[in-house]
Every structure is written in C-alpha cells, then in structure tokens.
C-alpha cells in the first residue's frame, strides 16, 4: 500500500518473442527511437561504453532486418527478460561484472520470479483468456470483448527458416521466459475456471436447499 492508502498492482502483457522482435524492427525501421529512455539502474544511466548505439545520426530508419540482427548492442534482444528482471543483480549494463552464462541465468531467474509475483499478466496470443483472467483477478468487466488480431505488422513479414532460428537464438532468454509464462498462464486460467465452476455448483446447491425448504413448509 502507498502512503495514500492505495494499492498498486504490477501487470504486464507478454508476446511471442519472434513476433515481438519483428514488430520492434518494423517500428525502428519507420524511425522510432528510445532516446528519451534513460535506462537508469542503481541510480545512474549506462555509459556509452556500457551501452553503445547501434546507429549514427538521428535514428535507425530504413535499417534492414539483417542490420537489426547484426548489432550486438541491440536492446531488442531479450527485451522482455531484461525489462522484467532486476538488472542491479548483474551490475546493470556493465557486462564485465560476471560471466555471460551466469548473467543470463540470474536475469532469467529474476524475470520468472517477478512475473510469478505479479498480480496479473496476459499473453497476446490468448486475448479472450487474458480478458477472462483480468476480469476474475480484479473483479471487473470490460464493456466489449478483446479481439484476437492475427494479422499484424510482424505477421506480414515473411522470413525463412534460417532467419527464424537466428531470431530465436538472439532472443533465447525471451524464448525460455515465454515458455514458462505460457505454462503459468494456462495453469492460472484453468484454476480460475475450476473455481468459477465450483462457485456456480455451490450456488445451485444452495438454491435447491432453499427450494426444498420452501416445499417442505408448504
């Protein structure tokens, strides 16, 4: 609870890592930048040596997918794990603090733990289930049902098997996190459905008891 007596809940929506990566590439290709993001960690922003830029000039507009994949400092790589984890555990953006393999494990474990502790998270590939879980978690209803859009900017990009594998390799932490998230999400969904069915059954039993009692009195 905050000093004002309000409760704040952390929520997030995860997306299939390959689709998310392609979507970010298309976004960057059209001129999007994150220059306003300070990437503050442990009270400071990373130095240019810790986080070099992938491009010179004002933006990276017009970059090819190959160029996007080739930049080793591209923050699109494993973005979901990085944004869900506690970067201070690995020395923020200073890659010399610990070996890469250890760093990856700490980041992934941290992202999984933080995701598990969130009040709610959804998956873009399960819009209706995401809506159901949100409504049951926070005891509220949306005016209209969520729509499943399978036609997106990412889906319009045709890539070959080799490129698919390259993107998966660049986002291997996100791939593992997403598998974990999907399993946890479906577990929570099934739990909520069972809970709803049990509650409905209990109400029906109570109504039958009330009806039998009325019939007995008459």
UniProtKB/TrEMBL annotation:
Known catalytic reactions: alpha-D-glucosaminyl-[heparan sulfate](n) + 3'-phosphoadenylyl sulfate = 6-sulfo-alpha-D-glucosaminyl-[heparan sulfate](n) + adenosine 3',5'-bisphosphate + H(+)
Subcellular location: Membrane
Region forming the signal peptide: none
Molecular functions (GO terms): heparan sulfate 6-sulfotransferase activity
Region entry Disordered, spans: 197-218
Superkingdom of the organism of origin: Eukaryota
Compositionally biased tracts (Basic residues): 200-218
EC number: 2.8.2.-
InterPro entries per the UniProt record, alphabetical: Heparan_SO4-6-sulfoTrfase, P-loop_NTPase, Sulfotransferase
A Gene Ontology term for the protein's cellular component: membrane
Keywords noted in UniProt: Glycoprotein, Membrane, Signal-anchor, Transferase, Transmembrane, Transmembrane helix
Membrane topology: Single-pass type II membrane protein
Family to which this protein belongs: Belongs to the sulfotransferase 6 family.
UniProt function note: 6-O-sulfation enzyme which catalyzes the transfer of sulfate from 3'-phosphoadenosine 5'-phosphosulfate (PAPS) to position 6 of the N-sulfoglucosamine residue (GlcNS) of heparan sulfate.
Name of the protein: Heparan-sulfate 6-O-sulfotransferase
